[in-house]
Protein 1
Amino acid sequence: MITREPTEEMVARWKATWRENKDLLSPNRKTGAQVLEYLQKNYPLTEIADPKVQDVIADNVTMNEYWAEKLPAGAAPVPRAFYLENEGAGKRFYLPENRDDSELWGGSIERIFVGVDLASGFYMVEGSTLLWDELCAFQGLDEMDLQNFVMVAQYIDAQRRINEPES
């Protein structure tokens, strides 16, 4: 997850990661429905039915050319919004060792927000870069993503983070 303005060094590292891995990767991208199914199967979620929240998810798709291209022809976003609860398997994202710098999210994180667009596969997470990385590693990449050095580098970085042994 990119959490700050990229530096020249970051871009150079992403390009190097892409060059090292692009020919080793195959398209394996899961759909938005599969991302949502994964979340629902693994974590306690509370759905948010607020249309304003759903509009934010939809706007993130339609106002971003890269994600808008992932919408099927003639389709509109189908947003779903949730809080990942601090219980069961979701507790690990709230543990101090897994919490992100509070400045990243503008203060203390009380609840982790997750939005998924079923049509494009776009997802967003506020409150946990660890959860974002887990979803990135799970979702995989499509042909278009494999040509994008930033997407490949984020995927590889997420794979590494998720597969690190916990200490």
Protein 2
Amino acid sequence: MDSVEPKFLLIDEHDQVLGVCLDAEGLFVEPTESDEELTVEILGCLLAQRLRDYLEGSKRYRQRNALDSLWLRMLDAAGEPLVDFWAGDIIDWRSSRLDPERVDLVALWGLDSPLASARDVWECWRSARPDQPNQWAVYGPEGRRAWLTIVGRSRFQRAEGSDRPPGCVYHLDGTHVTDEAAFFLAIGEAINGPGGYFGWNLSALDDCLWGRFGARTPFTLIWSNSQVARKSLARTLEEAVDAPSFFEAIQTIFAEHDVDVVLR
């Protein structure tokens, strides 16, 4: 069992490791309107002394030494951090069914947990981070939104503090920009490479263009196959007759930040 690589870490609000865990059940949830509380079972955990003391302590001890915030950190196949999920209170714990030297924990769940329908996307990222552009293109709109969620929450690709200088030229492959999530995936890869982040909605795109996300304006963006997005991103943002489309709103944001967009 010692040779099995952990898939998760339990961490506190100060990024201190409280447990090293082999797996989790109930991580992916089905959408529900029920008020029933969801739980996740975190399996095969080697606990830091602080967490063990907390679990074994009296009610008074736990009140005095409260765990203010508990996070479940998903690791990729290389053991590197992928995404952190907020976990609620631990409501049960027992000797692990995977290894008697470890424990299984049950915690409240569901606040920001991934959907069951997106399991394939998450497992794709966990098994191997993107190393080629457009790996997301095989998914439909829902899968692309899940991919964008991972991109936005993954620490590894976020380029804060490492902008390339003004005047650079970036190439956006518009071949697969058939929905709004696809645009943000394509611009993220144009700026920061496969799996890269550069906004997840129009406001976030505007924020990224102020800097600290990989590129400093002014720069040039060469957008190939732009006719795909012009047709697909035609949703208007307001009800007025002359309201801009999503595609036009993108161009306005770029223009406001002195980005020269070359549509091809």
Protein 3
Amino acid sequence: MTDSPSTTNYFQGTGYALWTPTGGAQRDLGNIVECEQTPSQDKLEHKKTRGGAKRTDFTQYNNQAMQIRIVLDEITAENLGLLLMSDVVENTDGSKTIRLMSKSVITGALEFIGDNDVGQKVHGVYPSVSFGPTGSFSPISGDDFGQIEITGDLLAVTYTDGITDFGQMTLTPQA
């Protein structure tokens, strides 16, 4: 890794994601148009009330959470199933039927593998993800390709060493 400032630290990310549903087989989600991770937390501030004015003398961060948002343009029954909280039934004629909102929770593991040419490659491993409905699907698309947006909550996992986190991310320097 190169210390800043350096043009080798510029980043133009590309990659793909592998989804492993709980109790199921790993599969590629297909082409990803957008992928964002968003951390959140509540900030608790303690105020010192002595000396004529309140002043913050301590802050603590609680209720940590992390979400991942993925926009896909490969409209498969399995990808729609993530959005529509659905089981996918394989029919004898080769078609697939989605059982709309047939699941109350969809959990599994997600892995993102960066394959970009510019900048460091990002590899994310998220051992516990829960997907829920957050976007919409339009069976009619205008001039662009159709897309679906899925959003998952990264769930905290406690490891045998006692550390709790939402997964890990590894950055590999540009070759």
